[in-house]
Design brief:
The chain is α+β, with helices and mostly antiparallel strands. The chain has one domain: Cytidine Deaminase, domain 2, CATH 3.40.140. Helix content is about 35%, strand content about 20%. The protein contains eight helices and nine strands. The strands form two sheets. A six-stranded mixed beta sheet has the order 2-1-5-6-7-8. A three-stranded mixed beta sheet has the order 4-3-9. β6 and β7 form a beta hairpin. The radius of gyration is 18 Å and the shape is globular. About 20% of the residues are buried. Bound molecules: zinc ion. Zinc ion binds next to β5.
C-alpha cells in the first residue's frame, strides 16, 4: 500500500481483502482500473464489475472483498473529504458494515467503520499493522505492474488560449471542454458511473 501510494503523484484506490474470521484484518489490496488526479479517483464501472466477478470465482464472499474501501491521499492529511464521506454513505450505506480507509503520504491513516445494526452508526477505528500474521514478501515488480495496469491520469491540459494549428487539429477543443466539464461534475466519487448503469 505504501509502495502504491508513492508510486505516482495522484490518489489511488481499491479494495482491501480480508476473511470471514477476521474481517478487519486486511491481507491484500486490489487496485481497480481507474482514472486519477491528485484529488480524485474514479473507478471504471467495468473494472469494479470484473473485480467482483473474479472474487466470487475465487470463492470469496462480499464480506471478504467488498467492505473495505481503500484510497490514498497524496497530501499529508488522511482526513476524508466531503465527497469521501458522501460516497461512503451512499455506496456502502446499505451494507451491514463497511470501512473507509485512507492512507496519506507521510504515513498518517484514517479509518471509519459504519454499521447498520441497531440504530446504525459510524465510528472512527484505530489502525495498526499486524506483524503477528504471516504476510507475503515485498514484491515491487508485481506491485508496479498492478499500478501500471490500473492507474491512468488525464491528458495534460492544453495551454490556455492556444492557437497552435497542430495542437488544434489534434484536439477538438469543443470535445475537450465537454470532457473537462464532465470530469468536474463527476468529481472524485469513484463509484458514480457504476451507480448510473445499475
Ligand atoms: Zn479522499
Amino acid at each position: 500500500m505504501v509502495y502504491l501510494r508513492d508510486r505516482g503523484p495522484t490518489e489511488i484506490g481499491g479494495f482491501g481483502i480480508s476473511d470471514l474470521e477476521e474481517p478487519l484484518l486486511i491481507t491484500d489490496v486490489v487496485l481497480i482500473p481507474q482514472q486519477c488526479t491528485s484529488v480524485t479517483v474514479k473507478f471504471d464501472d467495468a473494472g469494479v464489475a470484473d473485480y467482483f466477478d473474479a472474487q466470487v470465482d475465487l470463492g470469496r464472499r462480499p464480506e471478504e472483498f467488498a467492505r473495505l474501501w481503500i484510497h490514498t491521499h497524496p497530501g499529508t492529511s488522511p482526513e476524508p473529504s466531503g465527497t469521501d464521506e458522501t460516497t461512503f454513505a451512499r455506496v456502502f450505506g446499505s451494507s451491514d458494515w463497511a470501512v473507509m480507509f485512507i492512507l496519506a503520504r507521510g504515513g498518517a491513516t484514517y479509518a471509519q467503520l459504519r454499521f447498520r445494526a441497531g440504530p446504525g452508526g459510524q465510528v472512527r477505528i484505530p489502525v495498526e499493522v499486524d506483524f503477528g500474521h504471516e504476510f507475503a514478501a515485498s514484491d515491487q515488480a508485481t506491485w508496479n505492474h498492478e499500478y501500471q495496469e490500473n492507474v491512468r491520469m488525464p491528458l495534460p491540459e492544453l495551454p490556455f488560449g492556444t492557437t497552435d494549428p497542430l495542437v488544434e487539429s489534434r484536439f477538438d477543443r469543443r470535445l475537450w471542454d465537454e470532457f473537462n466539464e464532465r470530469e468536474m461534475m463527476e468529481l472524485d466519487d469513484p463509484f458514480l458511473l457504476r451507480e448510473e448503469i445499475r
